[in-house]
Protein: TolC family protein
Organism: Antarcticibacterium arcticum
Amino acid sequence: MKKLVVLTLLLIGAVSPAQEILTLQESYELAEKNYPLGSQIQLLEEKAAREQEVIQKDYLPKFNINAKASYQSDVTEIPIDLGGQSIETVDKDQYRATLDVEQLIFNGGAINSRSSLKDLELQSQAQQVRVSLYQIKKRINRYYFGALQLREQISLLESKENALGGRVKELESQVKYGTALPASENVIKAEILKIKQQKEEAESQLHTVLKSLSAYIARPVDISTVLELPEQEILIEAPGARPEIEWFNLREEELDQNKEILAKSLYPNIYGFAQGGYGKPGYNFLDNSFQDFYMVGVKMNWNVFDWGKVKEQQKSLDISKDMINAERETFNFNNNIELEEALIRIDQLQKTLLQDNEIIALRENIAESSNSQLKNGIITPSEYLTEFNNLYEAKINQQLHKVELEMAKADYRIIKGNKENKLR
């Protein structure tokens, strides 16, 4: 018998679908992972890898094949008589084919600097994408906590509906035995219909909010999904880690690297070279036959005077750094104002919740007294409903304020960018 019971319970557990749980932190992570903009980071990395390959190829030797055939109107002649022997004159038709090889030996580290700049550009562009993705968290807060508020509202409306249903039955019994006026229960029945309308409207709004949340996280979210109300600790003194700050820093590093590249453009470039060829004439212009030839050597290019062009370009980059500093200061100024406003909101909601407890305690006493008066025929159903609605309005407000407080904390965490403010 026991085995049969255990088997039955196991079958029921296997058939009954487990409720899916979704946390706020999971919503953040899924939204960043699945938002279309997120794919740009991988594309940027692939693009930067290709560009790095191009830069590194500047270390490889360069090969050039040259060929030329020409005919000229005149050639150099040497009018010297060497005892009846003359020096052969070069033909006017000439031919040459060469292979030229050039290998970079020294350029002041310009290639390494360009490679480092490409890395910084990638980091900066990827960080700019992360800045945009970070803003999605605010939208997730609106949908996630909005859904929690609507669920609390629906739950309390259902509780209110059930409580009034009990009052209707009591009034119907009183009318039956003549202790209440006929149709007294209709007042409460009308209120129940009104509650049903409010619940249907809230359910419709909840469906819309969950649909939007589902679209952002690319995961099904419906009425059956359990959304956990996070418990959050706010660490005011902890340092912030907004992605915008890192983006400003990377942009400054980019400019510094550009200044370094400009400075290295003033260094000499030293190359090793080799040339091998075949033609008529060769290097010996006095030999009028086809011959092969070659040359090896080292050469240097050095722009020793650039008319102050590099200095002016570096000054322009310094101005760009000043502009970035102005952006950073503006961001910090606005961010600090947002933080102050968020803290004020948190403090106000905490005080409101303390007052909610007092209000509910008083409303419960009043509603209990009104219920007793209704049963004894001292007050009308309409008068009872006034106090009953006041009680449930206070309860709804309390639940909404609880959710609003956690949303305000979540907003503070996003504004602060504080990694130590973990969700629990």
The mean pLDDT is 86.
